[in-house]
Amino acid sequence: MKKLWLVLIACVLVLAACGNGSDSNSDKNKKETKSYTLDSGKKVEIPKNPERIASVAPTYAPGLKYLGANLVAVSDQVEQSDVIKDKFKGVEKVGENDVEKVAKTKPDLIIAYSTDKNIKKYKKIAPTVVFDYGKHDYLDQQQELAKIVGKEKEQQKWEKEWKAKTKKDGEQIQNKIGKDSTVTIFDEFDKKLYTYGENWGRGGEVLYQAFGLKMPDKVKSLTEKEGWAEIKQEKMADYAGDYIVSTSQGKAEPSYQSTDLWKNIPAVKNDQVIKINATSYWYNDPYTLEFMRKDLKEKLLNQ
């Protein structure tokens, strides 16, 4: 009888040890991390396979979603885009300072802009990757997101297909409008007129980088540093290209389009103005890029 008890006790101890080992391995897997180098040059330890991402920077949320990442919180600004808002049904929407709301979603990784004033608070919640938007073109941006979630192969496949499609599109468009034709983006915001370069949304990435179309030299010089610039309405003719991409919000036309200055611009007289919906053109993720590619191609080829 005594031997039987000793055998039973030994079995219990072995099972307990196995159980503890399993728990230990499970915890180890959950806590497995990798090093990621921030735009600042500093390194941060992030989950090797993040499972609950909060993107308080709206720019990066759709790119992560496209790669199959699980987002538990995103900036409420994504709802302003007709292209991507439906991609985040059921995901918690957070405002600029909703730090506590972000914390309640229990993220294991947070993505933020370098200009976000709540970075220190976010770091207390979860490892935080801080992006300097101006340091990445749209392709590089998607590459970095792929590194974070371990989807490099998926990103490379998308990029290869994207370049092939847009190269063909660009050749078609240039054959139609002329290889030396220039394109300018005009955008009105808060009654001020702006123009944009090749990597600040509003179609710049597709027009200038993917399609290979040219921007006027004056626009290039003006937007080279910041990526965008305000221009005086009385000077808009100086920056107008052979074709103009004009953004508007809703049905109302921009106020500058009611002026004689606008009506006398050659591109306007020649009916070479491409009208687009501003809110659908703000971002530069794969979903939005594909929408812009099709929309711009159709409108340019129909000129």
TrEMBL record:
<keyword id="KW-0813">Transport</keyword>
<dbReference type="Pfam" id="PF01497">
    <property type="entry name" value="Peripla_BP_2"/>
</dbReference>
<protein>
    <submittedName>
        <fullName>Ferrichrome ABC transporter substrate-binding protein</fullName>
    </submittedName>
</protein>
<feature type="domain" description="Fe/B12 periplasmic-binding">
    <location>
        <begin position="52"/>
        <end position="303"/>
    </location>
</feature>
<feature type="region of interest" description="Disordered">
    <location>
        <begin position="22"/>
        <end position="41"/>
    </location>
</feature>
<dbReference type="GO" id="GO:1901678">
    <property type="term" value="P:iron coordination entity transport"/>
</dbReference>
<dbReference type="InterPro" id="IPR002491">
    <property type="entry name" value="ABC_transptr_periplasmic_BD"/>
</dbReference>
<feature type="signal peptide">
    <location>
        <begin position="1"/>
        <end position="19"/>
    </location>
</feature>
<dbReference type="InterPro" id="IPR051313">
    <property type="entry name" value="Bact_iron-sidero_bind"/>
</dbReference>
<dbReference type="GO" id="GO:0030288">
    <property type="term" value="C:outer membrane-bounded periplasmic space"/>
</dbReference>
<feature type="compositionally biased region" description="Basic and acidic residues">
    <location>
        <begin position="25"/>
        <end position="41"/>
    </location>
</feature>
<comment type="similarity">
    <text>Belongs to the bacterial solute-binding protein 8 family.</text>
</comment>
<keyword id="KW-0732">Signal</keyword>
